[in-house]
């Protein structure tokens, strides 16, 4: 599956309607973004059950601001509609593969319960 371009209008539904979504926040003028793009594209072809989405931070400035993007590229991973990973910087292919494996293996409900227990709520 190729990558999908997200906008402010499609962001929430894409996150909530798919089990796993990886979102690359990027800009055309960003060198590291251009280096990461083929790695992200290749991973999308190898993991057809995951939605790989891109947000052009220049075209979608309000969305980037709402997501608190301060550095690009920034990669976010959502599972079951929950943000489970967010990190700026271009990942090499092996690290992206490890991240995908970790997100697949993550039990979001268990993680939420553990976080709630630790915070005392």
From TrEMBL:
Pfam name, any one: Thioredoxin
Thioredoxin domain: residues covered: 2-105
Superkingdom to which the source organism belongs: Bacteria
InterPro entries, per database record: Thioredoxin, Thioredoxin-like_sf, Thioredoxin_CS, Thioredoxin_domain
SUPFAM superfamilies: Thioredoxin-like
UniProt KW keywords: Disulfide bond, Electron transport, Redox-active center, Transport
Keyword Disulfide bond set for record: yes
Record bears the keyword Transport: yes
NCBIfam families: thioredoxin
Family assignment from sequence similarity: Belongs to the thioredoxin family.
Protein's recorded name: Thioredoxin
Species of the source: Nocardioides salarius
Lineage: Bacteria, Bacillati, Actinomycetota, Actinomycetes, Propionibacteriales
